[in-house]
Structures are given as structure tokens and as C-alpha cells.
Amino acid sequence: MITIKVGTEEAHAVPGSRLLNVSTEHNLPVVFGCKAGRCGSCLVQVLAGSSNLSAPTARESRILDVLDSEPDWRLACQCFVFGEGDVRLRYV
């Protein structure tokens, strides 16, 4: 089981869950627009636990480049959680 933490809020997720889905199902403070990796509105900073997230897809990498993002930023709609432990996020 993975624990997703955004600020003081947290939720538990089963491995293979999409990060944005976990966030919306548990009312974590992550905003989104298209849910398809096109708009960049679900940009989050991974503060801890990046090893528990899937690698960026080609689509996500293109959008992150356009947004001139930092290495620890991800699109919540494109990430899947894996393993066990905590993932701490900050909505950018």
C-alpha cells in the first residue's frame, strides 16, 4: 500500500493506481484540467518517494519540457504509484 501525502492531507492507494485518480477520489488538493497530459494543470512537486512513481511517459516529458519544469515535478494525471511507502507531494 502506498500513502500519498499532500500538505496535511493523505490517502492510501493500491499499486498501479493513477496518482490523479487517488487525489480526486480522496479530495487531495491537486487541481486538474484535461486528465490527458496536455494542459499541465495537475503539475505537482514530488518531495519524497519518487521511486514509488512510474517513469515519465513521452507525453509527460514533452509537457514538462514546455512548462520548463524542475526535475522533481510531475503531472499527476500521468503518474502511477508502485511499491510500498510514502509519496509526498506539493501542488505547484
What's the gist of this structure?
The chain is an alpha+beta fold and 92 residues long. 17% of the residues lie in helices and 28% in strands.
Tell me the β content: 25-35%
**Terminus-to-terminus distance:** 25 Å
Inertia-based shape:
globular
Give a short account of the largest sheet: 5 strands, mixed
- Output the helix-strand order: EEHEHEE
Task: Write the topology of this structure.
Blueprint: E1 2-6, E2 9-13, H1 19-25, E3 43-48, H2 58-66, E4 73-75, E5 85-91
Parallel strand pairs: 1-5
Antiparallel strand pairs: 1-2, 3-4, 3-5
Give an overview of the whole structure.
The structure is a single chain. The chain is an alpha+beta fold. It has helices spanning 19-25, 58-66, and strands at residues 2-6, 9-13, 43-48, 73-75, 85-91. A five-stranded mixed β-sheet has the order 2-1-5-3-4, with helices on one face. The longest helix has 9 residues, at 58-66. The termini are far apart. The relative contact order is 0.31. The model has no long low-confidence stretch (mean pLDDT 90).
Notable traits:
single chain, 92 residues, alpha+beta, 5-stranded mixed beta sheet, 2 helices, 5 strands, 17% helix, 28% strand
